[in-house]
Amino acid sequence: MARSTTARGKQQVRDPAPISREQWLEMYRKMVTIRLFEEQVNELYTSAKMPGLAHLYIGEEAVAVGVCAALRRDDYITSTHRGHGHCLAKGASVHRMFAELLGKEAGYCRGKGGSMHIADPEAGNLGANAIVAGSAGIATGAALSAKMRGTDQVTVCFFGEGALGQGVLYEVMNMASLWKLPVIYVCEDNLYNEYTPRSETTAGSLRARAEALGIRVAEVDGQDIRAVYAAARDAVERTRQGEGPMFMICHTYRFRGHHVGDVNRTYYRPKEEEQQWMAERDPLKVLAQWLIGRKMGDAGLFERIEHEVRADVTAGVDFALTAPYPDASEVTQDVYA
Amino acid sequence: MARSTTARGKQQVRDPAPISREQWLEMYRKMVTIRLFEEQVNELYTSAKMPGLAHLYIGEEAVAVGVCAALRRDDYITSTHRGHGHCLAKGASVHRMFAELLGKEAGYCRGKGGSMHIADPEAGNLGANAIVAGSAGIATGAALSAKMRGTDQVTVCFFGEGALGQGVLYEVMNMASLWKLPVIYVCEDNLYNEYTPRSETTAGSLRARAEALGIRVAEVDGQDIRAVYAAARDAVERTRQGEGPMFMICHTYRFRGHHVGDVNRTYYRPKEEEQQWMAERDPLKVLAQWLIGRKMGDAGLFERIEHEVRADVTAGVDFALTAPYPDASEVTQDVYA
Amino acid sequence: MFTPSALPGAVVGHGTPTGAREITFAQAIREALAEEMRRDPLVFVIGEDVAEAGTPFRVLSGLVDEFGRERVIDTPISEAGFTGIGVGAAMTGMRPVVDIMFGDFIALTMDQIANQAAKVHYMSGGKLKVPMVIRTTMGATRRSAAQHSQSLHAWVSHVPGLRVVLPSTPYDAKGLLKTAIRDENPVVFFEDKMMYQLKGPVPEEEYAIPFGVADIKREGTDVTIVATSSMVQVALAAAETLAAEGISAEVIDPRTTVPLDTETLIQSARKTGRVIVVDEGHERYGVTAEIASVIAEGAFYDLDAPVKRMGAMDVPIPFSPVLEDLTVPTAGSVAAMARTLCGRA
Amino acid sequence: MFTPSALPGAVVGHGTPTGAREITFAQAIREALAEEMRRDPLVFVIGEDVAEAGTPFRVLSGLVDEFGRERVIDTPISEAGFTGIGVGAAMTGMRPVVDIMFGDFIALTMDQIANQAAKVHYMSGGKLKVPMVIRTTMGATRRSAAQHSQSLHAWVSHVPGLRVVLPSTPYDAKGLLKTAIRDENPVVFFEDKMMYQLKGPVPEEEYAIPFGVADIKREGTDVTIVATSSMVQVALAAAETLAAEGISAEVIDPRTTVPLDTETLIQSARKTGRVIVVDEGHERYGVTAEIASVIAEGAFYDLDAPVKRMGAMDVPIPFSPVLEDLTVPTAGSVAAMARTLCGRA
Ligand SMILES: Cc1ncc(C[n+]2csc(CCOP(=O)(O)OP(=O)(O)O)c2C)c(N)n1
Ligand SMILES: Cc1ncc(C[n+]2csc(CCOP(=O)(O)OP(=O)(O)O)c2C)c(N)n1
Ligand SMILES: [Mg+2]
Ligand SMILES: [Mg+2]
């Protein structure tokens, strides 16, 4: 369930928004897409087909999908180094995503951005960012822009809890609160800043940090897409209506390493912890079980969805692997507009 | 009275510490010293004898004096662009202060620092800073250093409420809280960031911002040195004993312009407001009245103190006016240690 | 890579007109902003104390009265934050003019400027752009000490994706700021605090000055003095002195360090065979190094003497006037250098 | 202004020894830190993921086991904050070694580095000092894209009060880091990520390398190649190729850009008459500009050709390998430039 409290701490519990079976199944499909896309990315890395590294979103799918399901296509998002899930959830195609990850011209950034810089303005994605909290200013500025241009667009700024270490986040949240900007700060609290546990990097209380700036906070189970979606829908409504910024804390967990090369992790987090999250808190299973309980789906249906998605992902990676690299002349293009 | 609350908000009221008449009179003398020093600085400016500008501390004397009275000489302070009061309160001599403001070799920084950079390490003053919140990192680092070196030195970081606009302040307060560093953040809330009222620059609650980081907050009437001193003594005791950082909010007001050249102020703050503060909340009068009420002083005594201080200030400015400038060769000295 | 921006209905100006009314550098900046804000409702100003206060330098006085607080936005003391907000606003259709009070404070915004604003267009494969102007200040001798006196344009000139402007006269200030606001890229615009009260001719009619076009502020034949920002005034004063001694100095103002009009600089160097580069940034690893090496390479076979560089002394700017005045090039020191170069010392 | 720091009980080393054991660049860094931390209890390391993780590059692996979490301190993701904490700790008697994971992130710390650390000693009239080392990285071709591939040493080289070190071999890395830690000033120490696995001879016995002393990595007579950091390896490879073609290239590594050993550079330029300056920072307004103009001035009458500069292309670093590889100088492109200079193209 989504708990939403005002800066003053007043509690109000809301039920997940009642939406149709089709919508739930669409969200399920999107989560599966992210899951299979990321598994394929890992495969590309281990088979040395992908240049550089990538930060997988596996385990956190419910956050990106649940939040983006509450957004319009013309609403904005900004993303992070762990951005594949956000990009796909906001509408990116696996074909062009893979192409970007492989540095191909057909990629979203003509191969110039790579995994950490995928931007898809047509879908409202203002770009992933390789600087922790690097998009906090951009997202807040997009919200100011929407307000000044008189549109009712909402901007969602995704970031990990590690971004709370960056002072600029407080600077822009303060201005968003002062100016009642239509921006939602979505904190994906997966318990680790790279290889350091959150408890060693973050004093006091996450939620109190936003509340102290006069920002309303919603704290939800990030593994339960129904809770995420309900909170997001409420937050989007409020911000669109001009109530000012919101801060969403989504408790989640990355099932894999910090990046594809982070294989031996026991020195910073126990295997048992990983296994427990994967066994009990897998967002795909959580939603599937609920759908089954509500007779909205069964094993067969989920297998079919997975089958269809896998076909799309396979087609996407094949497309990308054979797609051409940008021409050498591209290197000096688009430095200036 | 000083109200001290834990990060969790529990209230506990304490009486001003019972200290001797001599100590109160010494604090009074220090406040008068700052007052007359600053009036002389203004005089130097209007008579075009001082290069550049200066930010006067007049009206805020009780904060610097009350806090520094609770410190040992080997405790550290860091100061701001409005730093003359802090420097004098921590033990600087008016002679060398004036010399620095006039760019003379006898100044605390051999004339190289000027009004905004006075440093006096012998007295524990690590320096004023012309970057808003610029000394937050330095002060926190000094506290880490004291802890690592195993001394029980406390560090006080003075700043105006405008410094809450700078993200670095949250970054270092978070680390101070995580590591239980012996540092006290003293926020001089004089209601204005330069020419903009605090209400237009600061959302939510000042105290909640520190509490959210797990830092204990004390909020006091900055015009009443007894309240300031009591809160400071409590804060210094706690931090020295290893309880971790504290955040002190001192409600105060600058009686003069943002700097000596800021004469016409009505466009950003009403004359009546200034007059009321000066008439009712002058820290010198507040203490004098209390001392008179307690039969610890009378008009004659205060006149004598003012007379003595004025003699010192006059001697100091005369010394500085006739003191030699640094030799030209100084310009390339001390770039590297 | 650079093509001058199309300037709707603008007379492209070169050199400085004669017979026009005289206004100050600060007024020129204000006029450019006001005219652009009238022309384009997407242009807005954001920064500290920009509204009623009109900045501590009073450069923006009156703008808030005409355009209101919605378009002249006072911020908290959060340079990194509101610069980042400018980037996001620019990416989504607005045209922010961000005010960074003292150039020293760009140190707080380098991530937003260099890692975000400068790279967004390229990283996105050309899909996103950041039409933002960052107005800030430079220049010493104001007795403001080491943290309020730096000229840090070398930092941003080093970052691909940024344009960097250094006006030296009211005329250039107005014409270049208009171009900056109409440019589709992030532009860092440096105003020397010491020139705000400088008066000069500025025509009433609309004009704009393209980037990458150096201006020959004074023609000469014996020595070329390449100077930026307020150093142009210093160079012109030196040229005056030298003229009296029979040394003919040519004073060239690149006006933008990025893009840099290397052609004009090299041509002049070829003509005179002697070059001094004067800039108020620190000399070491500063703007004078780039300009000097571009000229030394381009005019290699025509130089009669090594290219001389004169930047700010490589020391933090001291407060004491007797020391501070030693740290920046003066008409006297530039003239002396020219005499030496011309074998008249 | 610069005098080499006194190095208690240290053999001052020049050039690279032969016959010593071989270790990697990363091991050399770790050894220097471990030895200095043993020697001086005031030395400590602070940064992100420096303890158990030993940094993402594993450069610090094992340090925490020997020195504990009190002296190898993991921080939040707060570069500005913990750099500022380093400044304060250094001012009060400690000797912090601050770890900034990627050089691109110094953009977040420029106020702490340039406005605070670099100026404290001067602004205080010499009373306070900041003996702090900032270790960070540089270098592209790691497929890390525009925000994780920059070489920003030009920014800090421009700021008086800082020392800037760019080691090119394991031997230099160890000897220079020891000097950096013992120096009384803020030192920015750049490690090229691509060299961490590079092996080279490093003696067992104690040694340190003074700042401001360039190292002639290879002697030659036809052309001088001044190179920094990993570009030294590139230059040496180019020199090898050139030797086979009968072109004798001298490769000089300044090792520190501040202080810069101008004497050695100029002498070599005088000897060969032809110079190429290679550095991985962006070419425009970069380190190559300063070095090239210093040489062009100092060796003016002995140069047979203009000093050539080769820096990183003036574009944000692209992700795509086929593009990224075009942005940095290579042994091939340096050799080609040398041929042209020597009229062999
Ligand atoms: C300013 C900055 N500092 C450090 C890094 C290196 N880094 C990349 S991801 C990361 C951890 C981020 O943790 P969090 O924000 O919680 O996101 P998560 O990886 O857990 O999704 C770090 C330190 C960076 N990219 N940017
Ligand atoms: C980083 C930075 N931004 C802006 C300024 C310009 N400035 C100097 S003082 C000041 C206002 C500070 O207000 P506050 O912190 O409340 O201190 P007060 O002047 O009220 O004592 C500003 C904006 C600065 N010195 N540093
Ligand atoms: Mg995390
Ligand atoms: Mg204030």
Bound molecules: thiamine diphosphate, magnesium ion
Number of helices of chain A: 11
Low-confidence stretches of chain A: 1-13
Distance between the termini of chain A: 46 Å
Q: How would you explain this protein's 3D organization?
A:
The complex is a heterotetramer, with two copies of chain A (337 residues) and two copies of chain C (345 residues). Chain A has eleven helices and nine strands. With 337 residues, chain A is of the alpha/beta class. In chain A, the strands form two sheets. Chain A has a seven-stranded mixed sheet with strand order 2-1-8-9-5-4-3, sandwiched between helices. In chain A, helix 1 packs antiparallel against helix 10 and helix 1 packs across helix 11 (299-322). Chain A starts with a strand and ends in a 15-residue tail after the last helix. The model of chain A is unreliable at 1-13 (pLDDT under 50). By secondary structure, chain C is of the alpha/beta class. Chain C contains eleven helices and 16 strands. Chain C has helices spanning 25-39, 63-67, 79-91, 110-123, 153-157, 170-182, 230-244, 262-272, 287-298, 321-327, 331-341, and strands at 11-12, 22-24, 43-47, 72-74, 95-100, 133-138, 163-165, 187-192, 199-201, 207-208, 215-218, 223-227, 249-253, 256-258, 275-282, 308-312. In chain C, the strands form four sheets. A seven-stranded mixed sheet of chain C has the order 4-3-5-6-8-7-14, sandwiched between helices. A five-stranded mixed sheet of chain C has the order 11-13-12-15-16, with helices on both faces. In chain C, strand 7 (163-165), helix 6 and strand 8 form a beta-alpha-beta unit. The longest helix of chain C is centred in the first third of the chain and has 15 residues, at 25-39. Chain C is globular. Chain C starts with 10 loop residues before the first strand and ends with a helix. Mean pLDDT of chain C is 95; it is low at 1-13. Classes of the chains: A alpha/beta (337), C alpha/beta (345). Chains C and D meet through helix 4, helix 5 and helix 9 of C and helix 4, helix 5 and helix 9 of D. Bound molecules: thiamine diphosphate (2 copies) and magnesium ion (2 copies). Residues 160-162, 190, 192-193 of chain B line the site of one magnesium ion (MG).
